[in-house]
Each structure stands twice: as C-alpha cells, then as structure tokens.
Please model this.
Amino acid sequence: MNCPTADKLSQFVDQLLPKQEMAETEAHVQSCASCGKVVNAFQEEQRFIEETLQTPTLPGNFTELVLDQLEPYGKSKKQRKAVWKRVVLTAVGIVLAVGIGATVNPAFAQLISGLFTSNQVDEGLQKAAEAGLTQRLNLEVEDQGLTFVVEDVIADSSRVTLSYKILDESRKPQKPNLNIWNADNKYTAIDQNGNIVDMSGIGWPRGSDYGYIEFSLFDHSNHIEKLTIQFNLVELNGVQGNWQLQVPVDLNENRKLTKMVELQDATAVHHGVEIDLKKLHIAPSAMELFFETSLAKEELQRAEEAKRKLEERFGKEKMDSLVIGDTSGIAYHIENAAGNIIYSTERSTDSEIASLLRGSSEDTAILGRTTYAHSFVPKNEDQLTFVLDGVFKKEQAGFSVVIKPKDIERHPLSLDYKGYHLTVKSVEKSLVEAEDSVIIKLEGKVDFLDAGFGSSWMVVDEIGKVYPGKLSSGSMSMKGKDGRHDISIELELDGLQEVPEQLTLHLLYTTNYYPADNQWRVPLTN
Model:
C-alpha cells in the first residue's frame, strides 16, 4: 500500500480506523521506517498530552482503607500532627483528611459530591465550591449507547467551569475522553449579546469519572450577565455519534461577589518599558490583575527601525508570517500587610507563595504595546501591594550561523548567544511525505523562559531563498538545579523540498530581562 496520510496515521494511533484498515496500516507501519517514525511521534505526543492533563490518583480501595481506620462514633482518638486538607462528609458527620497534592479516588469523590470538592481541580475552584457556588445541573443527552452528562457548574466573573461524565447504557461511568484533536467536536459559549467566549481549558484527571471544560471571562467580566454553552459533539471515547446539549448559565448574582478595584495613576517607566496597572478583580475562584506594557518613545523608535531593516532584508511578507509575540512584559510579586510575598510571577517551591494560575496577553495595533491579564488563587488578605521585580523587552538579536546538514551528525553545531545555549541536533526532510518541508531540530538550555523564542527565526538557503522558521513543536521545562530551563524546538521550513547543502540560520529577536533599578510599589487594596 502507499504511505498513509498523517491524518490517517493519527487515527491509527487513536484506534479510530475500521478493523480492516487498522490491520493494513499496522502491517505497513511495521515495514515502513518513515511511517513508523511518524507513528512514534504521534504516540509520544499523545503520552505527553495525557500526562499534562492528568494528575496522580489514590488507590481504588482508598475509601475502604480510610473508613476502616475510623473509630466507632463516640470514641476519642488522638490525632497525628500532619499537614492536611480537610474534606467534610456532611451526610454522615465525619471528617476525613486527604493529603495535599493527592487525588481522591473517583468513587470517593462521588461521595463528597462531585468534581469541584476534590483535589482534582485547582485551589481556586475548590474555594469557590466551599463558598457555595457549585450549581448542580445534571443535563444530559444520549446517542449510540453513550450519555454525555454535564453535572455541575461553577461560575463567577473570572470563569465558567463545567464538570461532565460519559455513561454507558447501564449508567456506568466511562473514561471522560473528549477527542481534542477532532475539530468537529464543538464547545461554544455565547453571551446575552451574541458574542462568543472562547474555551480556555479542557481535561480529565487520571482515573477519574469526571472531566472539565472551562471558559475564561478575562476580557468579558464586566459585561457578561448570561451565558449559553452549546455542545455539538460527534465523537465520545472514539465512538461516532451526535450529542447536542445547551447549558444556560446566569452570572448576575455571582458577579456581585467580585470586588473590583480601579487602579488610578499606577504608571511607571523602567528600562524603556512603560507600565500601566489598570484594575484588580477579586472573585471567589480567582484574583485577576489587568495591566498594559508598552515601549517608551526612544525604545519604540529603535524597534520600528529594526523592524524596517528586517523587512528590507527578508521581505515584508516573510516577516509578517512570523508570530513574534509579546514585545514587552514585567516580572513582579505581591506582598501582604506583613510584607510577606504571597504571589509571584516567578515559580517558587515555597508553598506559601502562589504562582500564576493562568495568564493571557494580546498585542495591540500599536507596536510594542501588549495587554495582560494575570490570575492567581484568591487569599483572604485585606492589604495587597504590587512590587516590580524587572521588565522584559524583545530586542533585535542580529545573530546568524551557517549550517551544513551533512556535517551535523559528525560535528554537532552549538549556538551560544545571550543566555541561549543550543545545539543543532538534525536537519531532515519532513517525515510526512505529503508535505514539502524541512525540519531543523534544536535542543539545549535557556536562562529564562521566552514563549516567543521558537518563532523568531529566519532561514536562507544556499541560493538566497528565504524561509520563515515556523515552530512546529517545542517544549520548555521548569528551571533546573543549574538555574536554566531545558528547551527543545523544531523549526519547519515550508516549501523546501530537499535538504540543502548549506543553510544560514538567523535569530531575529531575543527577549532580554532587566532587573528593576528600584522597587516600584503600588498599593492594590487598602
């Protein structure tokens, strides 16, 4: 048989092909090295996604093990000292302790009434559930012997999160797998004015009967009163069918629980970056800080001149095809009344310091200006103070290196530039035969995370033809013991049919960090 398409190989990995095609494809993959590599890549990707979406679980008999240790009612027992998160079983009047970081077994989670009362969700949702914001829905639709059930919803001005289950004909829970690769599975949220709110998250903890779907209200929190979430699903757990469901959500009452603080004249300039803190929202499930960064006049002039020169060198169309990302940003922490750090944009091993729950940014029409919304788990603190740690600027790199692909295996090429320490691992034709492209793989370490680093490359072949280096895949780790982050990226050069004898790799931009010269402090709450 001819080599299957990448889409068919993806369906083969997900076991979605008919039985006969599965057998034929399996036989082909075993005899075709190229397709075998593609299948291995899909399997690695699948494992990575599952590990990212999943969390550890406690043993299946956890409930019985705990209940067996409880003394009969009326007897006293000395409690051991430990750090615990308490879960109250109000129906039977007993308190069980579940260690932080563990996941309650699905059967046990059902006893304590749903997903949002378990450690399978973030602490912000747990706090919202404790505050009584969980609304039981139990809306469902059935097709092909599978029932899709939306059980609970938590909604405030920060986000709307729904928990769901998939049941078989005997009402037994199945793996809550919604195929995120199937573009025909639609999850749409529409507000009272007909505006669409994008889905921000989906997942299912390992071993759980539950999954969750989340819609962020970052950019809409002042406007949305009602939301209708529409599910149009064509696949559940690999079964094709038709599941359509509408979930109405009324936010009018819960919006009143949000404290909104408008930050007046909270502006400063540090190292050529203008900072404007806009507002703070404290909702039951999240605390959100909204701000904007932009380039000061001289910095903006330099950025515009650098952009013009790059467009002259590589062509405006080629430059416009790159997604350069945020041109400026900030690092900061937030202190309480005692001066203790309780929030930080830098990830910390200190359990008392909360890192970002989630964040979003958007470049505006003005070069160098970016709007941000950062979200943290809310804490019961009356006085909060913003403290600037430093600023980030995306600046022209002007770094180039010549690559001879045939020599890479014998003489690996290393790149060292301003905190980036990389090695060119390979330059190869794409494994997907239907695509005319070449993949450059780079691995190494960086001194700090730069989300736009993988999209700041331009490549010129031996005859002078220009190819934007488009990020096809990549990963970055948290900071290691050496103070650096491991990084791996693959740059795809579309339209390049064969690997050239020689390529010149140009790094156009890097994001550079500048510590604040003095601590800029802004009271966020009184």
Notes: The first helix runs from residue 6 to 13.
